[in-house]
Amino acid sequence: MLQFSSSDSSAESDIAKAESMSRRNHLHDEMRWRAVGILQAGARQSAVARELNVHRSVIHRLWNHYQRDQNASRRRGSGRRRIITTANDRYLLQWARRQRTLTA
To answer: What CATH number does residue 41 fall under?
Structure first.
């Protein structure tokens, strides 16, 4: 078993921090507003990033977004909108079930 001495405790915490900073999808709204509140209180972006355990560029982008839009929530995605209606979807499913052998 691997043992850490007292001088290696910082290395142990760095490893734990690196593992927890692995890829995350998005900051939740609660974390976003918490970061904005801390920044408004006068904390530095790097300190906020360390406290929330995210990269400082995440906090930088969040702060720029908040200053520009006065909103810390995520923006709506910009993907292509669906043209097919729900009625068309139902018809296509019904047709595919009737014509099972066409695509087999």
So the answer is: 1.10.10.10
d(CA 100, CA 95): 9
Tell which residue, 62, 65, 59, 31, has the closest CA to residue 47.
59
Q: Rounded to whole angstroms, how far apart are CA atoms 27 and 34?
A: 11
Helices (H), the chain: 9-20, 29-40, 45-52, 56-69, 86-98
Domain count of the fold of the chain: 1
Q: What is the pLDDT of residues 34-68, one digit of tens each?
A: 999 999 999 999 999 999 999 999 999 999 999 99
Whether this prediction's pTM lies above 0.85 is answered by: no
